[in-house]
Amino acid sequence: MSDAHFWFTEYQNNNLSIGLRIKQIIHSEKTDFQTLDVVETVEYGRLLVLDGCVMTTDKDEFVYHEMLSHVPMHTHPNPKKVLVVGGGDGGVIREIIKHPSVEKAVLAEIDGRVIEASKTYFPHIASGLSDPRVDVQVTDGIKYVEDHPNEFDIILIDSTDPIGPAVGLFAKDFYQSVHRALKDDGIMVAQTESPFANAKLISSVYKDVSEVFPQTHLYLAFVPTYPTGMWSFTMGSKKYDPNAVTECRVSGTKYYTNAVHKGALALPPFVQELTR
Ligand code: SPD
Are 26 and 121 in contact (CB under 8 A)? Predict the structure, then answer.
């Protein structure tokens, strides 16, 4: 294969794809749950791929991990106990433990190979996994949530795409179970894909979450290596409103600020439409 054609391509459908030129394939395996590849790209550093889909890259991982974490972490006045479902690379955990209020952060990841690959090939993303407040559980997140009622201040669903092992993480039953696992003032956020590429999924998740939680909020961030670049997150909250947040309690973030928090909740009309 000539160098000019050495590309990773993620196909969204027959007519749309995203591509990154590759320097080398660093690691490939088939785990018990999915295919796992780590490749070195020219523009975005190392890239983690699960079942052919971009999960994270060295260059833009901070956007997704900061926005999935800090929007709910700032919405809650005193988050002490946090659960991350999925997210085996550790990026969300790394952000959560920046909050001094956190006493315990549990990672429930079904595929232990994702955790190991991230520790080996993305040590700066996985760095938080060795923090003494972090409890890493290689387990089915759906079952873990069912078995821990009334326990968490915040639950974050850092799933893969809605195919394969992640399908059950986009279901109403699961959001009901998440609601039960949260304390009376708890908050959940799920990554919910792209408004351009996955409009029906966002509408359906928003409706399901609205039927389970008293408050539902959709917010956006810009992640260049995810299909279409525009990414959505859906929050279900029992009590607190993310629009009321007035301060940033962490330093050193590269994307999240209080102004970005507010702006992320301001939806363009075509995205607002998905919440009706
Ligand atoms: N298509 C991209 C969906 C990725 C969602 N999860 C990414 C995991 C990063 N921690």
Answer: yes
